[in-house]
Amino acid sequence: MSVTTSGAESVRTSLLAGLPVQERAVGAADIDTAVLSGGDGPPMVLLHGPGEFAGVWSPVLNELVHSYLVIAPDLPGHGASAAPTAGMTRGWVNRWLDELISATCAEPPVLVGRVVGGAIGAAYAAAHPDRLSQLVLVDTTGLETFDPEPRFGLARHRFLANPSLASYERFMDFCAFDLDTAKSQLGPRWSSYAEYAVDRAGDPGVQSAIGGMIGLYAPPMPSDLLAAITVPTSMIWGREDAATTLAVAQRASASYGWPLHVIDGAGDDPALDRPAEFISTLLEVVGRGDGHDGH
Question: Which alpha helices (H) appear in 33-114, and where do they start and end?
């Protein structure tokens, strides 16, 4: 299953230790996909962002498994998931997600996608409206031209060019609203979290997968594709997102009628910055479909 080194596998084991999920390999679109799953209830699929891995959802897993059967895969070529030998296209990613859902979900799941994970979810929802019960877009790319704040872009470039714990923390300073608080909330898990991220970013295959996902899902999706989504769709956004700003989300909400829920004191990963607020907002969104106006 794994494309990691033995050292990375050990760090990954430490990162996942104590979480209420089990890891297994799921065959989808001719690759082995590493999947974390746990809980009981209707299925909820969590898709992470580029250069990440399913373990980034660790701050919210303990709560979500009380209400849902949580399915959190490593995206293709990320974490411990294999990459397709022929490269990635949107059609192939749709097939991968469709087969993953078939293998793990007994009924149409709620799909929660963050950054490129949200764009993957939106493209999939447009193509397969009967396969999802709801779609939740979290600080998602692909809604407009990707135009992060310059300091964010520079920190990301420096991390990917020279992955180290120091460059990772500098990059995460721009992803998180308050990295020190986020680190303290993760506690001893942070060291494994950061070490695994650095290890994966230094792998040429993972670098290629990151570039592939960004190339496919950072550019704007056609507005007619987004307008054609019939799956009930909501958005959750960090107010301080420096990569895809709140204004992007507000314009998408106005254009497509998707309710927008804003989490204060959060950057582009509200589940990391404000896990309690993210959980309560997400459960509100998927449970009742109503809530506060984020404008």
Answer: 58-64, 90-104
Indicate whether 118 pLDDT > 50.
yes
pLDDT of residue 288 exceeding 80, the answer is no
- One-character DSSP codes across 122-160: HHHHHH-GGG-SEEEEES-SSSS-----HHHHHHHHHHH
Q: What's the DSSP call for residue 54?
A: G
Phi/psi for 136 (5° steps) reads -125, 120
Q: How many beta carbons lie within 10 A of that of residue 219, not counting itself? A: 13
**Integer Cα distance of 112 and 175 in angstroms:** 19
User: What is the predicted pLDDT for the residue at 6?
Assistant: 61
The rounded distance, in Å, linking the Cα atoms of 253 and 234 is 8
Is 22 strand, coil or helix? strand
**Residue from 74, 80, 48, 60 nearest 19 by CA:** 60
Which tokens belong to 30? Answer: 């001719």
Length of the chain: 295
pLDDT tens sequence across 207-227: 999 999 999 999 999 999 999
- Torsion, Cα 239 274 211 196, to 10 degrees, reads 160
Q: Are strands 69-73 and 31-39 parallel, antiparallel or unpaired?
A: antiparallel
Which amino acid belongs to residue 42? P
Is the per-residue pLDDT at 32 higher than 70? yes
pLDDT at 272 over 70: yes
- The letter for the amino acid at 252 is A
The dihedrals phi and psi of 43, each to the nearest 5 degrees, come to -75, 145
Concatenating the DSSP letter of every residue in 59-78 gives: HHHHHHTTTSEEEEEPPTTS
Lowest mean pLDDT among 140-144, 235-239, 282-286, 287-291: 287-291
Query: What global pTM score does this model have?
Result: 0.94
